[in-house]
Write a structure and sequence with these properties.
The chain has 106 residues and is an all-alpha fold. It has helices spanning 3-47, 55-75, 82-88, 92-95.
Length: 106
């Protein structure tokens, strides 16, 4: 195999890798955005709770959504969650539940 053949093969193999990498990054970004939307919806529902009886269930749901969002953020390389806690207005009662997430029994 000549040097120019090797260079061409490397160029094509790098291009294929870059296409795959771009696709994977796009999927990660889409998933992160999706989980952010779920957290936002959970926070809106929690803030709009009409009765005190509704709040515990909404806190549990919000904790599940926040936990999933934090996991997704960490998979993307974001380890510090202070800014998103402030941005989404995640209350302490939700954060306190993150260490004890209940299974979702649907």
């Amino acid at each position: 195999m000549s040097l120019s053949d090797r260079a061409a093969r490397n160029r094509y193999s790098n291009a294929a890798f870059n296409v795959l990498q771009v696709d994977m990054l796009g999927e990660m970004a889409a998933s992160l955005a999706h989980h952010g939307e779920l957290v936002e919806a959970a926070m809106n529902a929690l803030n709009a709770a009409a009765t005190p009886d509704e709040r515990p269930g909404l806190v549990r749901k919000a904790a599940r959504e926040v936990w999933a969002f934090f996991v997704q953020r960490e998979l993307c390389g974001f380890r510090d969650h202070k800014d998103v806690i402030r941005q989404y207005g995640i209350p302490g009662e939700v954060l306190a539940r993150l260490g004890a997430i209940e299974a979702d029994h649907r």
